[in-house]
Amino acid sequence: MRFASVIHDDQTVVVALDGDQAHDLSDLLPTARTTLDPMVELLRAGLPDEATAFALPELPRPLSYAPLVSQPSKVVAAPVNYRDHQVEMQQLGNVSALGFFLKSPSSLASHGGVVRLPYSDRRFDQEGELALLIGKDGRDLDPERAIDHIAGYTCLIDMTMRGGEDRSTRKSFDTFTPIGPHLVTPDEVGDLSDMTLRTWVNGNLRQDADISTLIWGVAQFVTYVSSVTELKTGDVVTTGTPAGVGAVAGGDAITVSIDRVGTLEVSVTEEATVPCPTGGAGSGPKPPDTLTPVRKREAMR
Ligand code: MN
Questions:
Q1: pTM of the full predicted structure?
Q2: Is the per-residue pLDDT at 287 higher than 70?
Q3: CA-CA distance, 96 to 224, in Å (whole number)?
Q4: Strand order in the sheet with 124-126
C-alpha cells in the first residue's frame, strides 16, 4: 500500500492512496494526540489494511503534499554508502568506518516543494537516496528483526553544502531534506536487490545506480544504527547516495525516481541568500569538479 501526508483545509492529513484516490485516515488516529505529526501517529496506531482504509472518505484532488513525515525524533543518514561515490569523493573511509550522522528533523520538506539555498558563496549538491520510515520502536535489533521494523520506503534528497563544516551542519539547513511523495510498504516494494535509483537535474541524468550496490544494505545499516540509539516509530533512515553528485543553483529542478517506490520532485531557489558566516569553503571532503560520467561509474563498482 501507499500512504502520504497532504495539506487539506490548512491541516496536514494522512491518506492511503488507491490509484488516484486519496482516502482520509484521520478517523484512525487517536483523539488525544501526543504529537502534531499525523504520520507518526498513524505509524504508532499501525498502518491500516486496504479494506479499512479504502472505506474512508476521499479527499478532493489535486493533492498538495506535506513532508511525508514532519516531526520524527530523528533523521539518520548513511555517509559514503556506495563505492562509486566513495571514489568520486576521494574518500578513504566509507560507512563501515564512519557510522552514521544526524540531520535536523526541521530540514524535512515536501514533494513539490522548494529547496532554499542559504548562502551566495558556497557550493550545494543534490544527493538522491532511498529512505525508509521506522514502524515500531526498537534497539539492538538483529538484521532479521531490523527488516521487521521498517514501515515502508520512500525517496529522499540529502541536500548538502560542500566544505569543512560538520556534516550535520552542512546538511541540516531548513528544506534540505525533501522526502516523499509516498510511503510504500515493503510488500509492494518487493526485492531491494532489483531496484534502480536515478536522479535528474533539469532533466539531465546525474545518478543511476542499483540499490544492490549499497556497501551496507538496508538491514545491516538499520541494525547498526539500533545498536547506538533506539529507533523510534516515525524515524527517518536514509541510506546514502551513489556517484553523480553535483552542484545545483537557483531555478534548478531536481527529480529522484526509485523503481516501485516513486518519484520525488523539488525546485531550488537562491532568493534571500547571504554570505556564509562559517569558513569551511575549500576544506572537507572534495566533491568532483565535473559530473562523474556513467561509464566511469560502472568501473568504480
Ligand atoms: Mn547523503
A1: 0.96
A2: yes
A3: 10
A4: 160-161, 124-126, 246-247
Q: 86 or 298: which carries more pLDDT confidence? A: 86
Ligand 1 center to residue 73 CA distance, Å? 19
166 C-alpha to center of ligand 1: Å?
A: 13
Mark residue 193 as left, alpha or beta (left: phi above 0; alpha: psi -120 to 50; beta: remaining). Answer: alpha
Using alpha carbons, select from 285, 289, 288 the residue that is nearest to residue 300: 288
Per cent of the chain over pLDDT 90 is 89
Distance 29 CA to ligand 1 centre (A): 32
For residue 205, the CA-to-ligand 1 centroid distance in Å is 18
Residue 301's pLDDT is what?
Answer: 64
- How many helices (H) and strands (E) the chain has is answered by 9, 18
Q: What is the DSSP letter of 260?
A: T
Q: Band of the pLDDT at 295, cuts 50, 70, 90? A: low
- Among 239, 212, 211, residue whose Cα is nearest residue 225: 239
